[in-house]
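[INFO] parsing input record for Integration host factor subunit alpha
[DEBUG] input buffer:
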Amino acid sequence: MNKNELITNIAEKSGVTKRDVESVINGLIDEITDALQKGDKVQFVGFGTFETRERASRAGRNPQTGETITIPASTVPAFRPGNKLKEAVK
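[DEBUG] output buffer:
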């Protein structure tokens, strides 16, 4: 399912216009992104938690030359599913 399909499905189930649903979803994505940029967690009880994780620097290999390179440390977004979501998917 892509974003447009999600918007259509929510609009049909809720009786709200697609434009309003799209506005809410875009706002949700923006708020989650802003929170993660600040280093905060966003938790939806039962659904899951969006958070950032620190990835340490590590050794890698250039596939073309075979040369060993150092991949720098980075911060990456992560999602940890909640128990209700895990049970629903089983």
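[INFO] The chain has a mean pLDDT of 96.
[INFO] shutting down worker
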